[in-house]
Design goal:
The chain is an alpha/beta fold. The chain is built from 22 helices and 20 strands. The longest helix is centred in the first third of the chain and has 30 residues.
């Protein structure tokens, strides 16, 4: 029997604080910005790699100097403070600064040796495919992120020689023309716009026109200061406005390339036009209205799969806190927020684990639902469902909500086709309740369900104990699942957002998407080693980490740790790492 839908909740005002005091850029100023960027495009394209690295190095202290205001303004816009301020550090200036450093190092390597290193190591898997290690990048990372690894699984047929030949493609061109890339910035996570800009500038060779999203328009002036060297040299301009400004720029004759972080609906509007017969005709004929290249990152219904096993109590508790963090971070307005918890129905600890997740959610205060449309999506996706609502919510907030017992056989269920982008976690039990919870059978079934039923190709997480990974049969099943899951990032035991923040791993939807069926988008960002021919990024970490990871929601030491991590990225040193560790422990 479905429990009643919660009483109507009161959304925040339509015009939130993120857009305060920032006016849309006038059309004449948009034209002037495009024209000036075009004037600088060829000069930037031909700029020596060492000079590009110097530009990034010049931005780094400015990013660090802007960090306090960046975080404080973001917290005000989202109505958070205290320990939750760590989210704005970890998803704002810190990954932005880290990517700037990593790309500068790759550009310096290009200047010295013609290309970046081919990661930090390589192995040929049992299936014959090449996997390139890209994290940790050095001794400091190995200590700071002990037990964590990041790698790139290359596409079938890409061996080490081919990977090296294809690496850093822009820098192999003899006389690159460059061009203007329009970056349509995301409104939810403040590091996305600058990191997308870095990727377009320094990996692909475009100058950039960044249009801020109205939801976080507050960020535009901060980025203009933090990235001042790029603005001052005419390689970056920041403009403001809503959909009408974005459409004008997408159609502008001076724009050569488009990158979007947003929704698949916005993507299809840009590429195929408004819904209706003409859009369908264009799709059928393969005639997009947008004739210039577009790359994109468009969200996901992100699954977390728990491999059945007899877990210790402390393991279950840590896993529950881990999943709750994947749900609650940034009020669940993340393209990589956990949206489906997939377990074996026959797993004896299933109910206990769901109870622990609910307890973690109950202990996490509800958050302002600041992103437009959240209340409508919540109402549509919870109506008539069996709901577990562990806590309450005030006006302008949404309660953390578990939608129980979703039927995996109902492929048309909106829970599997519509990204909630709000405070919802779905519960999906797989298998016969009378069957043994065989881990290999579960892995195979979960992989098929994610690939064949769920919308999205961005990221997936798999929780599995080390004992099973070391088992020859189950370990082979884990590796098979990693290879077969059609996601741009697959994370073992941790939130795939770790891969986003590290910078060295490519981030984006799985390359199996197409313009007609865009899923989570096409193309990669970040990708500090400038790899091509990537199938997916892989993040691996231990099931339990002590002390509590800095990104876990409510970690009381996280703000102090994040501040010191920022200084460590600005000036890497053993003494700086010691200060980070000290902040984490005491």
């Amino acid at each position: 029997m479905a429990t009643p839908t919660p009483p109507p909740l009161t959304p925040p005002p339509a015009s939130g604080p993120g857009a305060a005091n920032v006016r849309p850029t006038a059309r004449a100023d948009l034209d002037e910005a495009v024209a000036r960027l075009r004037d600088r495009a060829r000069a930037f394209a031909g700029l020596p790699a060492r000079d590009k690295a110097a530009l990034l190095r010049a931005c780094m202290p400015r990013i660090a100097d802007a960090a306090e205001a960046w975080v404080a303004t973001g917290c005000k816009a989202k109505g958070i403070g205290g320990a939750l301020a760590a989210e704005e550090w970890l998803a704002g200036p810190l990954p932005t600064l880290r990517l700037a450093r990593l790309l500068a190092e790759s550009l310096e390597a290009i200047a010295a040796r013609g290309r970046p290193p081919l990661g930090t190591g390589a192995r040929v898997r049992r299936d014959g495919r090449l996997e390139l290690e890209v994290f940790p990048g050095g001794a400091l990372d190995r200590v700071a992120f002990a037990g964590f690894r990041g790698s790139c699984l290359m596409a079938a047929g890409v061996d080490r020689g081919e990977a090296a030949r294809r690496q850093a493609g822009f820098y192999r061109a003899r006389a690159p023309e460059g061009g203007v890339s329009l970056v349509l910035g995301a409104g939810n996570v403040s590091s996305i716009p600058p990191m997308d800009v870095f990727s377009k500038l320094f990996v692909e060779g475009f100058v950039c026109l960044l249009k801020m999203n109205p939801v976080n328009a507050w960020l535009g002036p901060i980025l203009e200061r933090a990235l001042g060297p790029l603005v001052d040299h005419g390689f970056l301009r920041v403009v403001h406005g809503g959909g009408e400004v974005g459409q004008y720029l997408v159609d502008h004759d001076g724009v050569d390339d488009v990158h979007l972080t947003g929704s698949d609906h916005t993507h299809d509007l840009i590429v195929w036009g408004p819904p209706g017969p003409e859009r369908e005709r264009r799709k059928a004929a393969g005639e997009p209205r947008l004739t210039r290249p577009i790359s994109s990152e468009l969200g996901n219904i992100s699954p977390v799969m728990v491999v059945p096993y007899t877990y210790a109590d402390d393991e279950l508790a840590f896993m529950a806190a881990n999943v709750a963090t994947m749900v609650t971070n940034n009020a669940s307005f993340n393209c990589n927020a956990a949206k489906l918890l997939i377990t074996a129905r026959a797993w004896p600890q299933r109910d206990a684990f769901l109870g622990l997740v609910a307890r973690e959610l109950a202990q996490t205060p509800a958050r302002a639902a600041y992103y437009p449309g959240a209340f409508d999506r919540y109402a549509r996706l919870t109506a008539g469902r069996d709901l577990l609502v562990p806590g309450g919510a005030a006006d302008g907030e949404l309660p953390w909500t578990i939608v129980r017992e979703l039927d995996p056989g109902r492929a048309d269920d909106p829970a599997f086709r519509v990204e909630p982008f709000c405070a919802i976690l779905g519960d999906v039990p797989l298998g016969d309740p009378g069957a043994a919870g065989d881990p290999v059978e579960f892995l195979d079934r979960a992989t098929r369900f994610c690939n064949d039923t769920l919308w999205g190709t961005l990221n997936a997480a798999l929780l599995v104990p080390g004992a099973l990974e070391r088992d020859p049969v189950v370990g082979a099943g884990v590796e098979r699942a990693i290879a077969e899951l059609r996601y741009g990032t697959v994370a073992i035991n941790h939130w795939p957002a770790v891969g986003y923040a590290l910078g060295s791993l490519p981030w984006g939807g799985h390359p199996s998407a197409t313009l007609r069926d865009i899923q989570s988008g096409l193309g990669w960002v970040h990708n500090a080693f400038m790899l091509e021919g990537v199938d997916k990024s892989i993040v691996r970490g231990p099931l339990v980490v002590r002390p509590r990871p800095v990104w876990f929601t409510g970690n009381p030491r996280a703000v102090a740790v994040a501040r010191r991590m920022l200084q460590l990225e600005l000036a890497p040193s053993w003494s700086g790492l010691a200060r980070v560790i000290g902040a984490a422990l005491w």
